[in-house]
């Protein structure tokens, strides 16, 4: 047993040493916070080591706080680096750097971390390789054309009315945790519009299915922070993999702009650099993982002063003209930007319209109490408690 442990320790140590040597000898570049790779890896581990930490909302809150702090520290640089268990991540958080990356039509390969999500999403446009993506994006684009989206409005209105009926029953309560009914209504809309299947998620007709989707989302993110589960041959022997198969069987058997600035639906996305490129004068070597964070970019004080303040006037025509390209990208951007952006925006407008016509809303929690956490999409760390009261007709 001790011999096996020793072999494992040796393999891990050798792998880390080899990665460091390759970076130093072949791919080393002078990033703003990277003059000694070994030092920086140890420094990142000492500052905050997320790996191995219990995966829960507290961890996700700490992650957001840590990278917001780091983004402010390097606010005068277009990028900064972070070592995640021997993997060097380059975080891009300035509009000009994001623009340099996204205008590179050659760089459309998703980050290797998206491979962890393939058991959940398959080889969809969200996770597939660049060679598969072009063909699949072309096939799917027709379904999201503006003429097709107009045909979905009837479905949007139908489910918006069901949501209103559900919320009418909530008006007598002290508060309602609003995320759940909204997300279930959205799931109903997507399934009926895109898949042609009515699942009745809001009416609890698909409780097991919805529960499995929630758990699959948590499991997809949790694997990133459990480095020992990165290799598939190890993950396939784990308890988490057996649970994954169980949930997959169930799942497979079946003022807007400012809000999006503060809470972008796509808070973070990654790219693999397949060819050496230059970003804002910094050379990014081949096979680097680059992380783009709209969440951090939208908090750039140089572009959005007092960035945490909710101020819709930022997007008045006379003000928005001064916002640089790629400074505001709530649904990502570039060739692999979100294909469902217009669909999602139409859905939000119709749901909000129905809700506000029928109810007055009062939040029982301040924004400081409901902190954002980054999972596959941006979510809240705790339920947002909303008091619904019927409007006088």
From TrEMBL:
Stated role: May be involved in the metabolism of insect hormones and in the breakdown of synthetic insecticides.
Keywords in alphabetical order: Heme, Iron, Metal-binding, Monooxygenase, Oxidoreductase
Gene Ontology cellular-component annotations: endoplasmic reticulum membrane
GO molecular function: heme binding; iron ion binding; monooxygenase activity; oxidoreductase activity, acting on paired donors, with incorporation or reduction of molecular oxygen
Residues reported in the UniProt entry to bind heme: 338
The protein's name in its UniProt record: Cytochrome P450 4V2
Alphabetized Pfam families for the sequence: p450
Obligatory cofactor(s): heme
Protein family according to the UniProt entry: Belongs to the cytochrome P450 family.
Origin organism lineage: Eukaryota, Metazoa, Ecdysozoa, Arthropoda, Chelicerata
Organism of derivation: Caerostris darwini
């Amino acid at each position: 047993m001790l011999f096996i442990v020793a072999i494992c320790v040796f393999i891990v140590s050798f792998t880390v040493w080899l990665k460091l040597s390759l970076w130093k000898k072949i791919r080393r570049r002078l990033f703003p916070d990277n003059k000694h790779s070994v030092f920086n890896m140890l420094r990142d581990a000492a500052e905050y080591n997320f790996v191995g930490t219990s995966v829960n909302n507290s961890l996700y809150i700490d992650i957001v706080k840590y990278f917001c702090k780091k983004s402010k520290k390097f606010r005068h640089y277009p990028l900064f680096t972070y070592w995640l268990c021997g993997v060097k991540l380059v975080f891009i958080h300035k509009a000009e750097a994001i623009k340099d990356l996204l205008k590179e039509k050659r760089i459309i390969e998703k980050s290797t971390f998206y491979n962890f999500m393939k058991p959940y999403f398959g080889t969809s446009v969200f996770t597939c390789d660049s060679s598969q993506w072009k063909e699949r994006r072309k096939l799917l684009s027709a379904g999201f054309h503006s003429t097709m989206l107009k045909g979905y409005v009837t479905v949007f209105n139908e489910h918006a009315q069901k949501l209103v009926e559900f919320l009418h029953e909530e008006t007598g309560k002290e508060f309602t945790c609003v995320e759940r009914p909204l997300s279930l209504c959205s799931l109903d809309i997507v399934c009926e519009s895109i898949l042609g299947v009515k699942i009745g998620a809001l009416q609890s007709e698909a409780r097991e299915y919805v529960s499995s989707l929630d758990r699959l989302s948590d499991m997809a993110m949790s694997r990133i922070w459990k480095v020992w589960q990165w290799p598939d041959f190890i993950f396939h022997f784990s308890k988490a993999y057996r649970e994954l198969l169980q949930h997959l069987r169930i799942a497979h058997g079946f003022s807007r702009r400012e809000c999006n600035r503060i809470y972008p639906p796509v808070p973070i996305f990654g790219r693999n650099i397949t060819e050496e490129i230059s970003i804002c004068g910094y050379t990014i070597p081949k096979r680097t993982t680059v992380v783009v964070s709209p969440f951090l970019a939208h908090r750039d004080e140089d572009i959005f002063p007092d960035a945490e303040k909710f101020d819709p006037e930022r997007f008045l025509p006379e003000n928005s003209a001064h916002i640089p390209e790629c400074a505001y990208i709530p649904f990502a951007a570039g060739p692999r930007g979100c294909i469902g952006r217009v669909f999602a925006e139409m859905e939000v407008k119709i749901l909000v319209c129905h809700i506000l016509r029928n109810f007055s809303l009062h939040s029982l929690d301040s924004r400081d109490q409901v902190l954002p956490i980054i999972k596959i999409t941006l979510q809240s760390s705790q339920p947002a408690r909303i008091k619904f009261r019927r409007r006088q007709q």
